[in-house]
Amino acid sequence: MPERSAEPVPASLGDSLADGFDGRDESLPPADWGRPSGPRRTATVWLFAVFIVLLGVGEAWLSDRLTNEAFLAWATIFTAISLQAMPFLVFGVALSAALTAFVPASFWQRVIPKNAAAAVPVAGAAGAVLPGCECASVPVANGLIRRGVAPAAALTFLLSAPAINPIVLVATAVAFPGQPEMVAARFVASLGAAVVVGWLWARFGRTDWMRPQRVHHDPGATKWQVFADSMRHDLMHAGGFLVVGGLAAATLNVIVPRDWVIAVADMPVVSVLVLALLAILLSICSEADAFVAASLSEFSNTAKLAFLVVGPMVDLKLIALQAGTFGWTFVRRFVPLVLIATLVFSFAIGGLLL
């Protein structure tokens, strides 16, 4: 294949996405699409063989260490995370596919301000309208970016939607009866963190930090065919990373003793950091995390707020989904930024309202 001439790098991530990255027509896959070469087939066989060997070694090493109760707890947590998240992931994938197939790019150009700084708070407020958890927000944000929405605005929606939507706020009110300040604190801290992250990404985000997934479609395909192709692609892709995140979360749930967590409940700053870490490890869906937070009676309300603010924006399954959708280069920069913002707002709003 002849080498392509070098082209100027787009000025911003939004420009590159709006222009199709490089301006070339990539509606059809290359001629050798899906044809693995000989070395790649050989590498796959060796990887599979190594995997089988590791399974055997792991079984021999863990057979006397992994009790039946621990294994059942691990399996229960993994199943709960997967089953709890999958309906929302399917919903998000379906919505993302609908955005791709049925909503023209011109619609988003009319609804969302072109200026990224102005689009960020609009996208953050829009998160209060759409019910769903963090699993649904990732494919939806990816679909918005594919339709020309500024990445900073789409990422703001990704953060705010699972944290401040009506279902989450109602669940928080039910979990904390007689404490409307917890609902208000969660709304303000989550929205504030999402908007600040969006503004920072609009200011400092770079094109080569993000690799949104793109789907090739037949130019003659109908809208329903595009919808089906997009949904099938995104579901298979995101579903695999959801399983990886669920496996990691279940393993850490079993490994970390609960006594260690309770021991630091009386330390004001440390307890906030511990519950933030616990939210990351547990990877509980945002519609259910308020009930878990309410059960942690040993901790302060500020620590519980950190659990509610950090969890929907940074957890293991969400990190895995973001890596699968946007790439690890994006995750290495985005996740620490979000974690810092959520912790700062948890401390600040917790000190003011709680």
TrEMBL record:
Keywords: Cell membrane, Membrane, Transmembrane, Transmembrane helix. Its main location: membrane. The chain crosses the membrane at residues 43-62, 74-103, 152-176, 182-202, 235-256, 262-284, 305-328, 334-353. Pfam families: ArsP_1. It is found in: Cell membrane. InterPro entries: DUF318, UPF0718. The keyword Protein biosynthesis does not apply. Residues 1-36 are annotated as: Disordered. The keyword Zinc does not apply. It comes from the Bacteria. It is a multi-pass membrane protein. One of its GO terms (cellular component) is plasma membrane. Belongs to the UPF0718 family. This is Permease. It comes from Murinocardiopsis flavida.
